[in-house]
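Archive maintenance. Older records in this collection stored only the sequence; we are now back-filling the structure field for every entry so that each record is complete. The fields below show one back-filled record exactly as it appears after the update. Entries are processed alphabetically, and DUF998 domain-containing protein is next in the queue.

ARCHIVE ENTRY
Title: DUF998 domain-containing protein
Organism field: Mycobacterium gordonae
Length field: 196
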Amino acid sequence: MSRRTVGAACWVVGVVGYLILEAVAAAAYLPAYSYARNFISDLGRAGPRAPLMQAAFCLQGSMFLLGTLCIVGMPVRRRCRLFVGLVAANAVGNILVGTVPSGLIHLAGAALALVGGNAAILAGSAALAMPSRWYRTASVGIAALGFLCLVLLVGNCTALPVGVWERGSAYSIFLWQLVTASVLLARRDDATLTCR
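Back-filled structure field:
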């Protein structure tokens, strides 16, 4: 099994594991949890299954970083180092969010996770030697959507409930991981993925 395959699998496990743990935590939340109206962190701060949500944050952050290191290897080129650094910022942010359920450190972790993750989409799509133009265009669109949702979240936009903006800024990262993992797993060649 190639490093590329292992890395892509790590990304899929991180995202799918996160979404499953989030759904299980949300199902036990009282009163009823709303994906649109509640913050994601509400699941890790309160509720009978808060430890599951805390684990979800840590799982996603660590699997995103581990998968990236498997795919990229030892980053030599500047673009690759930037990509790995942004994914590492996302991982640190997720782990902070998962281990510190509220307060300023939690907010700093959320900022690292959301800004680092969406910036990693741009850096990763530019750094990874992917053959198709649609992939780069889709990646830029996903990152733009993530950053737009983050701006609307921070700006306290009331056009949609707060949970929509927060999930848009977080789920954009998950979507990119799944799209990129699918592209990597579909490649028929055995060549190691290189960074440009």
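Update note: The chain has one domain: 3-186. Residues 3-186 form one domain.
Entry marked complete.
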